[in-house]
């Protein structure tokens, strides 16, 4: 069973790389996504260590960074609101 999953993973990875290489727009999209990812991580890092919002610290993990990448500033508000409600 593990062999089937590994073959499926490798085949889908090769096909994904093929699609990205054949389409020039994909490189632009990947570069833009990478810049947004770095910017979101930097904003969260600066927010945590600047002390702008006392008593709150947003963890730097894939879920929080992904939320901020997709939603932008409202994503930071969402993460802080969830942290306030849940903890």
UniProtKB/TrEMBL annotation:
The chain crosses the membrane at residues 6-21, 33-53, 65-86. It holds the Pfam family BofA. The keyword Transmembrane applies. Keywords: Membrane, Transmembrane, Transmembrane helix. This is Pro-sigmaK processing inhibitor BofA.
